[in-house]
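User: Here's a chain of 319 residues. Predict its fold as tokens.
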Amino acid sequence: MLEAVGLSSREITVYQALMTRPGADAARLAADCGMTETQTAGVLLRLVQDGLAVRHGRPPRYEAAAPDVALGELIGRQEERLSAAKTEMHRLTQLFRDAGATQDDGAAIEVVSGGAAVALRISRLYDAAQRQVRCFDRPPYPQRPGGPAAQVRRRDELSYRTVYSREALAWPGRFQDDVLPGASSGEQARVRANLPVKLVLADEALAVLPIAADGGESAFVIRSCALLQALSALFEHEWSHAVPLVAGPRRSPDQTDQPDERTRALLSLLAAGLTDEALSRALGWSARTTQRRISALLQELGVTTRFQAGAAARDRGWL
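Assistant: Prediction complete.
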């Protein structure tokens, strides 16, 4: 889950190990984490530079910094960068609005009105893509989710990447009917707590961006221009700080204890940071059923907290 603040899997592993072994040296941590001492020393150096660990003594020993302080600083830095990207996007959007959008096919920005017209442009965007399609997906949805973008036939030669907001996963029926099947068929899916806009991008050539914050039935169709570059950069920023949504477990030949589909869905949403209420809506469960199944999962993994459950599930190859 800490990938969302830019930490690698090795950094997360060593940071967690430091919490249980304060004052350990690189050799001790390497043995605990299944890494070489050289690898561990490199990870420790990065943790110290990021303020997640403190080094003292000779030979050097390490202490974990308090998560609420250290991780809070990392989150703050990322929020500053994201805020700057959002500000630039809004500035460029206003610039084009002031200049006056036209419906000339040769214009950089075209305004399309009406649900059917917007759906047609999204379909054409998918057809025009040569390398990749990237999306921001968040509610509200004027129509039922799983609309035009979801219904387009996927092409094997294209890369599909979508960042979902937590609200999107919690939308009734959305996770099981649309998100999981898409991820299982090859879409790379990640999750952010919130997203600034809805967006569909084809390569670096074309984008569809709803005009209204609530989605609405009007959209900008944006061709290659400075605004498209800003939107592409915004997507990559959000993608790099989003949490991967796991469609299936990491299997190895000697593993037989794999979770069932229900447990896999629960683990995916827990890793994405959904609240119990959002979990219930996403999976169609009552609050009592959600609590019971979370408790059963913790018991099966032999842990007492959800953070420990994430680590244990990853160790088993379930995430």
